[in-house]
Write a structure and sequence with these properties.
Helices cover about 50% and strands about 20% of the residues. It is of the alpha+beta class.
């Protein structure tokens, strides 16, 4: 029995030892695999940490670069991602957008080129010379008429600075003298017509320089983007004006002789030695005498106008009261005012000084201003004539309440031959120019204030002494 118990105990111990060995071996294996798995996880983590940011960031960086290219109008930019994920789908959609933009740009460019060609054709078909400058006075374009007037080819003009062309072209230097060396604050117009020899004859041109402004992106401010230079051929008007001046001078001179003869006849008829006249005959003779005086005054005024247009103003200075000048002008215009039922209001300052002026020429100026006011006033309107004393000058004003003058034409109304575009009234465009020369010849000056739709005030100043 003891022997059996010992053998059983020995077997149990052997079994326990074997199980302990197996458990130890299993623990070692488990430890190995845990360490191995941890190492693999660590390596995988390191790989992910190293490659995953670049895997995401590189496509985003490429997309950002491509968007910048599109913003710079490089619509040929494309994205290429060789991967089957959301980034590849994003790249495909981006490429479709860029293709559409490129297509639009090409179609828009062709339209712009077509419009540019059409504008160039229109400019070349304009009969007046036209030259375009950018804001830095680089010559952008010139039509054929401008090239012929300047006597140079297109390659010698377009794409060059105005200063550079003016160095070897005297006419270009003369034409651009108002443009070179200063920016234009407004449109300018030559005070005297330019005489240019072309096609074997003298041609007269009126010079215009118009600054061109364009709105900025905020649609609030306007920036200067260039200048448009134009020459208006007034040769025909000049020739007609010379012919008219000669005609007026000749007719006025020839009329004086028969008028003087009529006056002499009237004087003889009034002489009782010739015979006795009844009251009706006396009235007729007096009327004839008055008409002769008016005709003589008109011929004298016509001679004065011809002197102005010929540049030879002769002044006949006498002392007179300003009210006398105004009344003389009103007598000549009252009939026209009555036809339109226009009320003429006089506002003459009391105790105003006498003036030493050319009565005929000053009366002519007032007459012209009143006539213009009547012409551009509506029926049943009002015209105000003022005479004020100010400092060293006497001020005459004629105010109407007609349609007024657009601001862009204010500085041109005193220039010869100028007529406001769209104006249906007949005229040579010389009345205000002659008025200006009459006033300036007497040491004064003339100006105008007007707004479109609010009428105009023409005002001239004459020195008291």
């Amino acid at each position: 029995m003891r022997q059996l118990l010992g053998e059983i105990m020995q077997l149990n111990l052997s079994a326990i030892m074997r199980k302990g060995q197996v458990a130890s071996q299993s623990a070692k294996q488990a430890t190995f695999w845990i360490v191995f798995s941890s190492t693999l996880c660590l390596l995988a983590s390191l790989i992910l940490v190293t490659n995953l940011p670049a895997h995401i960031a590189n496509p985003i960086r490429a997309l950002n670069h491509s968007i910048a290219q599109i913003a710079a109008r490089n619509y040929s930019q494309r994205l290429r991602f060789d991967r089957n994920d959301e980034f590849e789908e994003l790249a495909n959609n981006f490429n479709k957008m860029a293709a559409k933009l490129e297509e639009y740009q090409n179609s828009n460019l062709s339209k712009i080129i077509f419009e540019k060609t059409r504008i160039e054709a229109l400019i070349n078909n304009i009969e007046d010379p036209i030259i375009g400058f950018d804001e830095n006075r680089l010559i952008m374009f010139a039509n054929q008429e401008a090239l012929e007037v300047l006597g140079i080819g297109k390659s010698e003009l377009v794409g060059l600075q105005a200063e550079e062309v003016a160095l070897y072209n005297d006419l270009m230097r003369l034409l651009t003298q108002d443009l070179l060396g200063r920016p234009a604050s407004g449109a300018t117009l030559a005070s005297e017509p330019l005489k240019i020899y072309q096609n074997g004859k003298e041609n007269y041109f009126e010079k215009h320089i118009e600054p061109i402004y364009a709105q900025t992106n905020d649609h609030e401010n306007e920036n200067l983007i260039g200048y448009l230079f134009m020459l208006h051929n007034i040769t025909t008007y000049k020739e007609l004006d010379v012919a008219k001046t000669n005609f007026i001078a000749n007719v006025s001179h020839e009329l004086k002789t028969p008028i003087a003869a009529i006056q002499m006849g009237v004087k003889l008829l009034k002489d009782k030695k010739i015979g006795t006249l009844n009251d009706e005959q006396h009235q007729l003779i007096d009327n004839i005498g008055d008409d002769c005086k008016r005709l003589l005054l008109i011929t004298t005024e016509l001679l004065g106008i011809s002197q102005v247009e010929a540049g030879k103003i002769i002044l006949n200075l006498t002392q007179t009261h300003p009210k006398t000048l105004i009344n003389n002008a009103l007598q000549a215009t009252q009939a026209s005012a009555n036809e339109k039922n226009i009320e003429v209001v006089l506002e003459i300052e009391e105790n105003i000084d006498h003036l030493t002026v050319d009565v005929e020429k000053t009366t002519w100026v007032i007459n012209n201003l009143i006539s213009n006011g009547i012409r551009y006033s509506h029926e049943n309107a009002k015209i105000i004539i003022r005479c004020l004393s100010h400092s060293a000058h006497i001020i005459f004003e004629v105010q109407d309440f007609g349609k007024g003058i657009d601001k862009q034409y204010i500085h041109k109304v005193f220039d010869r031959y100028f007529r406001i575009p769209g104006n249906k009234s007949q005229g040579s465009g010389l009345g205000l120019a002659i008025s200006k020369e009459f006033i300036e010849a007497q040491g004064g000056y003339i100006e105008v204030d007007s707004e479109l739709g609010s009428g105009a005030i023409f005002r001239f100043f004459l020195p008291k002494k």
